[in-house]
Design goal:
Blueprint lengths: L1 E10 H11 L1 H7 L2 H7 L5 H18 L12 E4 L7 E4 L1 H9 L2 E10 L3 E10 L9
Antiparallel strand pairs: 1-5, 2-3, 4-5
Helix pairs in contact: 1-4
Length: 133
């Protein structure tokens, strides 16, 4: 078994600026309905979406992307709370993970007023399983 690690940091003000400039178009391009529902529409929305964006970038770093790049919405970062988020892969992201033998993907993220950071750890081996949707 191999462990794969990806990390990313996202300035919250960049997400806030994109939300203000592009509104729902930005939201629908990058985030699933579940992610948008979880993050709500309040004073913490920008930092919560920034954490999810950083997590999606970290997932892309563990996938061996060559010719096909998964859509942002094919990587979903959710869960009951931010304390134990989960990663769900769909479509192209799930297929790439399956082809690469990635069985489990774990994510942790943290947010401050200025930045969000996410770390993704995945187990990979010859067996397929865990990430298919």
């Amino acid at each position: 078994m191999n462990l794969l690690v990806g990390i990313d940091i996202q300035p919250v003000d960049e997400v806030e600026s994109s939300l203000n400039t592009f509104g729902s178009r930005y939201r629908r391009l990058l985030f699933t309905d579940r992610e948008l529902e979880t993050c709500g529409d309040n004073s913490t929305t920008s930092s919560r979406l920034a954490a999810r964006f950083a997590a999606k970038e970290a997932v892309l770093k563990i996938l061996d992307i060559q010719d096909v790049v998964p859509s942002w919405r094919s990587i979903e970062v959710g869960g009951i709370s931010d304390c134990r988020p989960e990663v769900n892969l769909y479509d192209v992201a799930a297929e790439l993970a399956r082809q690469q033998g990635i069985r489990e993907v774990f994510v942790s993220f943290s947010r401050t007023g200025d930045v969000a950071v996410a770390t993704v750890v995945a187990s990979a081996g010859s067996q397929s399983g865990g990430v298919s949707q």
